[in-house]
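Database export, one record per block. Field names are fixed; values are copied verbatim from the stored entry.
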Amino acid sequence: MDETMRRTARAYTRRKFLAFSAAGAAAATLAACGGSTNAPTETPAAAAATKPAGTTGPAPTATNVPQSLGAASTAPAGSVTTGTTGTVSAGSAVAAPTKPANLADKQVLRYLDIEPPTFDPQVGSSPYNMPQIFEGLVTVNWTNNQIEPAHAVSYEANADATVWTFKMRPGLKWSDGTPLTAKDFEYSVKRIVDPKVASKYTAAAENLKNSAEIAKGASPDTLGVKALDDATLQFTLTAPTPFFPLLASTWSYYAVPKHVIDKFGDKWLEAANIVSSGPYIMKEWKHDSLQAFEINPNYWGPKPIITRVECSIFPDGTYLQQGLAAYENNEVDTAQVSASDYDRVVKDAKLSKELKPFPGSSTFMLHWDATNKPTSDVKVRQALSLGFDRKALIDVVLKKYYTDAPTILPPDIPGYNEAAALTGGVEKAKSLMTEAGFPNGQGWPADFTIEYASNATIKLALEFLQAEWKKNLGIDVKLDSRESKAAVEYRVSRKTQPFNGIFGQWGSDYGDPFNWHNFLFASKNEFWPTHWKNDEFDSIIEKAKGMTDKAARAVEYQKAEKILVQEAAHTPLYHGQSFFLIKPNLQGIYHPAILGTVPRGKYAYFTK
């Protein structure tokens, strides 16, 4: 997930590696967090438990994704298991939740976000509120972090996990009553690679057959996805992909309504036109002001208790600060607390009792142009990575709201490698700058600039780095902020144009290193266009992505991580974590480590 202006969840420092699926081997896992935390509120299914409303209980730290091949002997209640044929079926996963007692008469959930740059699942690099109205073949149950069937009731892989076949749930409908079939999913997934759609996230389809040929001009119709009939969808992959169910759960693989797109063109996403497949329909979209959602009468699953979801839209540079004020004024029911407001909230007698921590799987980084002077010199890039006080950044500037990130992969992702970190600190940085021809900053370009999406916390961090580099290395660095959409456009435009530095964040879309190393940093993808290329790195991650031995695969990604960090085209700064205020009578609010930024109405409810 492109974390430009997205809220990231808490990254705990316990070095817990989460397993991932391997064809014919162990079950995959979806990274929930790097350690353990508490789930602050209950869901309807859990509301009948003995603990009082509003208390906390342990949240899962890691959970099994349904196996591609082989079978687990047991599974948690409500989870999905595989049979000996490799088939995954719905089982009890779609049972209606127990209706909680003492429900409030009014069930309207209010929160806030920024104006999404796009609401098209095949275009955007972050889901925003899309999961309120769209759903995929499989989904992640936020109450237990299990991958569960959604529009598909079952799926199976062939012997080497290169072909995945999904069976559709019978009787599916779009919110307007139009039948929803496997052909809708085929159409939608092919949109990811269609140049006319102009996706900012084409790497989501990289594993599908012919994706590379399509990037070179072949027809999107040749992509490795096909509706064998209305009830059967088949994906053909370029290599063994044991983690494919994780990919299929992401927003890029949501079905979108071809009949509406054909009718309305670019206006299909407006509230008056859009139809949906998820638990809600969009009733209003007052741009830069409000998105409102109400229950979808044609949703296949249990109807939510929350009857209306209202997402107030705030300016992207100040929405956290304004959101806190809105929460205190009882204008929203939950709001994230920014790092700059964290101290005040913790010291407030009332607010501190309503503050809840959540796990995370993300990294905030600086990205350097590896072909443009002076950062074309690896010594300069390493010096910038070493030339500041990390402890002061985390403890003083960010007030321990975030955790230090000397390496790029978060601790919860297989391949995490503490030993990959650069060493030597400020003294080494000074020496490297001298070797690179910039002793005490002499000869440094006066217009060296870092671009970033406007955000108060990011601004604080960059101003600290700016001062540190001046003090320690004698160099001047300019800062240039842009609103979120413009920042994304700037990043994309750098594929063919030089730059100095870009601040950017990434949060895991699923708990696998492919979503980091292959997705972001492979020279053929380059999400951040640093123009850095390392043949050894590319070779390692290409080999590792389809390996079925999970331990050996993690070792390969650890090797890749060391190359990535030592080459320093990307400077990791800190791992994300988040704290949310939640009204005492609001239950069922979850923010998982992965894709957990926006609360989902389907789990929530209010008590009296």
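Remark 1: The first helix runs from residue 130 to 133.
Remark 2: The chain has two domains: 28-70+93-357+578-584+596-606, 362-369+403-424+444-575.
End of record.
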